[in-house]
Structure prediction request, 349 residues.
Amino acid sequence: MIHSFFKRLAESRILQHLAFWLVAFYVLLRIFSTSGELLKIDLYYTLIFILTLLPGLYLNLLILIPILLSRGRYILYILLLLTIMIITAGFNIFTFSSLIDFIFPGYYFISYYEFTDLMKFVVALTSVTTLLKLSKGWFLLMETRNQISQLEKENVETKLLALKSQINPHFLFNSLTGIYALVLKHAPNAPEVILRLSDFLRYILYEASGSSVNLANELEAMKDYVELQKLRAGKQATVTFEMEGDPGNYRIAPLLFLPLIENSFKHGIKGETGPSFASFHFVTGTKTITSYFSNNKGKSEDPAVNSFEGIGLKNLKNRLEMIFPGNYILNIDETGSNFIVELTIPLYE
Prediction:
């Protein structure tokens, strides 16, 4: 029941204001009470005292703060606030000196406080209500920002999952097509290719499904994939895979290198009848890794094959921008006969 009350209090502005003024009423009542007992006249005096302050306080809360203070018009806000506080103190004196006899003719009221003392009450209540107003706005702003941040995070994670789900079928399509060709030729190395594919799929399903993986495991999986592709490439293709530096305990987003390796085989070695090459070089530095991918241009009548752009590379660029916005290097150079790609990305610890 208590929890339900505080929940309603947090959600209702009216209940919040009533709770504040009840507390203020009690505090002022204890201040104004001249005897040890709480008399009816003390209750009336405190009630009238608060009512004389309400117009000025709510002019500040409902008009000055939203229109002037929140928009940075500080000088005008201070000048108008001072004017309202002076008028509020004057209105309190006028009420107890002239109006109170018409409101409660059966009681004798006098103004206990001079103008300077009343200004202290007005300043105190104005300061407290202003701080409460600003703090509530700040908490609402923080809550809104947290909600937006959470939505953006969920949106990014959803996009990354969608992009990764596109990478896996893209890889499977290329690999299964090659295995199909080997089986049709009754190639003796077809079982070995199938086993390597099985190992690589195991890595994708059980290790690369998270947001980050161990760098050493990722590089070893890329090496396995290159070895798998070498079996398809044939003896006339020169394929090299080199690693420098210590991967240590660094972590990395999974499968970032896969589209570039796929493209090297797709646009270089695939369909080439003469000598061809594909080179992969990874250099692990301090909190970064730089990778180099180079291959010759294969000959194909398909314009999509002759261009280095493709679904895998577009997905890679999208992933890089979402994971490392503005904090990565991706250079793609095309010479007369070769493609050369350089990728530098941060590493996690």
